[in-house]
Each structure stands twice: as structure tokens, then as C-alpha cells.
Amino acid sequence: MALTATLQFGLRRDVLTSTVLAFIVIICVVAVFGPFLAGHDPLATDPANALRPPTWVNPCGTDQVGRDICTRIIFATRLDLFISIGSVLIALIFGSLIGAFAGFFGGPVDRLAMWLVDTIMAFPLFLLAMAIVAALGNSLANIIYATALVNIPFYARTVRAEIAQRREAGFVDAARISGNGPFRILARHLFPTTIPQLVVQMTLTMGWAILNAASLSFIGLGIRPPTPEWGIMVAEGASFIVTGEWWVALFPGLALVAVVLSLNLLGDGLRDMVDARDRR
Amino acid sequence: MKSLAFTVFRRLILGLPTLAGVVIVSFVLTHLLPGDPAVYFAGAAPTPEAIADLRKSLLLDRPLWEQFLAYLGHLAHGDLGRSLVTGQPVLSDLYTRLPATLELTLTALALAILIAVPLGVLAALSKGSVVDHVCRVFSTTALSMPSFFTSLLLVFVFYYALGVSPAPLGRVDPMAFPVTERTGFVVVDSVLAADWSSLRDGVAHILLPATALALSGIGPLMRITRGAMLGILSSDFMRAARSYDMSRWKVVYVYALRNALLPVLTTAGFVFSFLISANVVIEKVFSWPGIGSYALEALVASDYAAVQGFVLAVATVYVLTNIFIDILYGLVDVRVRLAG
After folding, report:
1. Which residues in B lie closer than 8 A to residue A257 (C-beta atoms)?
2. Are A127 and B148 inside 8 Å of each other by CB?
3. Partner residue facing A264 (CB), from B30, B144, B319
4. What is the pLDDT of residues A78-110, one digit of tens each?
5. What part of B 22-61 touches A (C-beta under 8 Å)?
């Protein structure tokens, strides 16, 4: 497949992007298998060992009730990636459906879809996510829905632009003449051409989804303690920053930044490859 | 060429459907908030009668559409309702707290532009070099740092470790004599009152939150500047300017940058509205007495009127910013002005 070839060619030349991709694969392995390998129980408290700075036993130190921060970071990886992948998939499905119909059929369908998208975009997105979680309640599902909803416009716009641009192309006419109905043309011939741009968009919004979920948790509108989640862990460490116990907030924050940064760098690298391919 | 007044008027009209949508959505969303404001309002040991009375006076016993009509009626009179938490009219609460938020956001936006635009120009001038890559990694890193984490890092380094910043507890030193309020912007008021110790205090308090906020806006601004500069530098009129043997400085900073600033302006408007919502998080970390921390308290207490007022205020600022940017665009770009 052409996309795979582009990626192989691009990744071999772009050291930064391939390094970042390798790092993300490791993070995914940690998310899946990490909880079996972690040395401690993420919820086990040990008041005698509270707020200990990093040691060999507790590489990231312990928090205010003596839980091992390193173990909690590993357990949180699974939850944060789950939120991000879940919300991105929902946004992808609804966003590309809206965008595909708007771009393909045009006219009133297009106007309705774009009005919907513009209405969502009229809100500051983080506030909208905040209000949704506050209204529907602090649950994992609601955080995923809220994050998905604010991401839908980006997918709808990407897919709409890509499809509207190729609607009149020769291969679409050819498919139509061979007796394919409009839905079949859309699904089998047009939609696959948007996949490269969608992959770029997914990589970039995954990072943003993690930031969004962590920020929600940080202000108390997301995952609740004692569940290990990066945003919550930074929030719990926030009060110790002013008294000098820096490790409580620093390590979960660094984990968060490392993952989001690699997703963003990967997205940028992929975008360069896809754009270069489109120009050829 | 149409008059400026007409342009402003047309843009205001075009902003109305968005505002109407915002009013409806914020009303519906806030009425989904869990908890019963009547119970919250009735105090510690309420009698069922007291709660019923309160429900009646808050119109909570009426159908939702009647509540909405009543809300619209109040809104038309500039009445945003009364906050359950503070007991004050929401409008006056927002009015007293908005300057703190605006001062923080505008300072952050100015900082972000001052850092991002020169770096973007630098990256464009040295495209593909090490400098370009360093700028790219810096802007991506800034984009990937959650603002609450950046804030905490700054507090740790500058307050705890170095001791050069005041404690992250608000806009001014609570022990200091407050400066006379004119604009509500501490920094501006201190300058107007020629009160230099207040000025130093105000600047010291705003520096860390504004930096943390600015970092989240640098990424998009820098990218747009770089892209716009690259586009302009390879255009025909730039080739012409260079062939006339003008100085490189003049070509780049006067002719190219001036044209590249238009997309930067649009992005600045987008970044401004993004920063206003990022404010909620920053205000929590720094106990900043703005509308973000107000909204957060209101959300926790299911304070309908306060949350609606906040969403409405932010959306209004957002719509007005877009209109302002459009008008500015017309003033800066002769082509847009002539096209009317």
C-alpha cells in the first residue's frame, strides 16, 4: 500500500520521528504490561514512609500517604492512554461521518454540518469540556465523551476538505460509471484517500486529549483520587511544591509531558511526510 | 469603499447567531448540573417548606422553557441573576473580577507575541538549519506542557528555590496598602498613581502566571509566523525588493514582516480566546481572583446563574475579539479595506 511505503521511506530518513515512534511503542508496552511488572501496589499507603525523596526502592519518591509514585505513574499510563485513544476514536468516527457527508453531498447537508461544527468551535473548547463533565458528572465515560466532542470539529473539517477536493476527480467518475452507488463510492473510493491526513490528525489530537483530560482532573472535574492519573497526581503534589517536596508533582508531570511531546513530534513528522507525498 | 462604522455594524450583526447559540447551550448545560440550588441555598438544616419556597422563588418548579424565557427576559435587562455562593448579582461579580483575568491574559498574550514572532522570523530566515530545528522543538515543547505543570515548575524554581517571586497567592501583597482603583489593572493603576512600590509588587505577582500562560500560546504563534514569513520571502515582490539592492534589514523587517503579520494577527485572536479558557487552570494554581476561579467555585456549587454568566462573558469576549481582529485586519491591509 502506498501509505505504508511513504511511511517506511520517510521514517528511514527522519531520525527524530522514528526515535519518537520507538518511544511511543515503549510507552504502549508499559501501558499494557507495566502494571504486572511494577514493584508496588499503586494504592497501598505507608504513612511511616510518607513524602520520602527518590531512593533506589522508590525511584520517584513517595507521596503524602507513602504510596510509591513510580508505580502510580506506570498504572496511570494505561488510564491516560485509554482516555486519549477512546476519545480520539469517538471523535474520528463522528467527525469523519459528518465531514464525509458534508464534503460529498454539499448543499444543505454541508451547511447544516458546518453550522454544527462552527457552533462547537464558538466555545472556548476547554470550557465546553469542563461544563459537560460538570453537567453530566465526574465519570471516566463522561471525560471521554467531553474530550471527544470538542475534537469532532477538527476531524469533520479535515475530512470535508479532503473529500470536497476529490469529489469531481476522474477516479470518482470511473467508479460511478462502473455502477457504484454514492455511498459505495464514498466508503470505498473517497474515504480511503483521507486516511493519511486522518492519521496525522489522530496523532496530534491524542496528545491534546491527554492534556485536556489531565487538566480536567487537575481542577477537580475529572478522574478522582486515589485513582492514579497524571493530572490528579500533579494536583496532589501541587501543595507540596511550595514546601519543597518537588518529586510528588514533578515525576507524573514529566511523564505527561514526555508522552504528549512525543505524540506531537510524531504528528509533525508524519504531517511532513504526508504533505511531501501529496506534493509529488 | 464602505465606511468603518458600517463594517463594525455588519460584523456585530454577524456575531449575533453565535451569541444566541452560546446563550441556549450554556442555559441547557448549566441546568444539567447535578445538585439542587434550592437545597444549597436553604442552609444547613432546611425545612421542606423553606426548600419549596426557594424553588418557587428561583422558578425551579416551572418547566424548563419557562425558565429559559424568564432568563432571556432578565438578560435583556442586563440582569444575569444572583450568585448563590457570593450572594451578589452575577454581573457585578463578573465586573469586579474581569479586570484580573483580562490583565493576566493580555500580559500573557503580549509576552507570547514578543517571544514567538522574533523566533518565528529567525526560524524562517534559517530554514532547515539547526536554529530552525531548535525553534521547532521549543515550540512543540511549549505546546506539550500542560499549563498547570509549567506553573508549578515556575513556582518551585522562582518562589521556593530562588526566593525571587512572591507566594502564588493572588495579584498583590495582602499586607501592602492597595493602590487606588481606576482601570482595575493593578499594573496600569500603579503607573497612573505613580506608586512604584505597588507597581513592583503587581509586576512581581503577574510575572509567573503570565509566563506560564504565555508558554501555551507560543507554539501556534511561532509556527504561523515562520510559515507566513517563508511564503512572503519567496514571493515576487520580495525578489523585486532584493533586486533593488535594499538593505537586508529593511527588506526582512519592514516589508516582509509587515505582510506576514496579517496571519499572525488572526492567530493572536485565536490564541487569546484559548488563553482565556486556560486561565481557569492558572487562576487555580496562583489563587488569582479572576473570573476563572469564580467559575470553578460556581461549578462545584451548582451555581446556575454564576456559571451561565461566566460562559456568556467569555463567549462575548471571544466574539468581540474576533470582530476587533477583523476590523484591525481592514485597517492594516489596504487590499481588504478597498474590497470593503
Report:
1. 141, 144-146, 149
2. no
3. B144
4. 999 999 999 999 999 999 999 999 988 888 888
5. 22, 25-26, 29-30, 32-34
CB contact under 8 A, B277 and A243: no
Beta bridge partners of B89: B82
Nearest-CA distance A51 → chain B (Å): 16
Render pLDDT for B209-254 as a digit per residue (tens, 0 to 9). 999 999 988 988 998 899 888 888 888 877 787 778 777 777 777 7
Tens of pLDDT, residues A170-193: 888 888 888 888 888 888 888 888
The range of the structural domain enclosing residue A209 comes to: 15-31+65-279
Q: What angle do CA B154, A133, A86 make, to 5 degrees?
A: 90
What is the gyration radius of the CA atoms in chain B, in angstroms? 24
Q: List the single residue in A118, A219, A249 with the smallest CB-CB distance to B284.
A: A219
- Cα A112 to Cα A118: distance, rounded to the nearest angstrom: 10
Residue B22 lies in a domain: no
Is B311 close to A131, i.e. CB distance below 8 A? yes
Report the pLDDT value the prediction gives residue B340, as an integer from 0 to 100.
Answer: 44
- How far apart CA A268 and CA A273 sit, in angstroms, is 9
Q: What total of structural domains would you count in chain A?
A: 1
- Domain of residue B236, CATH code: 1.10.3720.10
**Chain A residues near residue B145 by CB distance under 8 angstroms:** 257
CATH of the domain at A242: 1.10.3720.10
Q: Give dist(CA B210, CA B112) in Å, integer.
A: 9
Q: Does residue B45 sit within a domain?
A: no
The reply to whether B12 falls in a domain is: no
Whether the bond between A226 and the residue before it is cis, its omega within 30 degrees of 0, is yes
Nearest one of A196, A189, A159, A158 to A7, comparing CA atoms:
A196
pLDDT digits (tens, 9 = 90+) for B264-297: 888 888 888 788 878 888 998 888 888 888 888 8
Give me the interface pTM, i.e. the ipTM.
Answer: 0.84
Q: What is the DSSP letter of A172?
A: H
Identify which of B76, B230, B222 has the alpha carbon closest to the alpha carbon of residue B135: B222
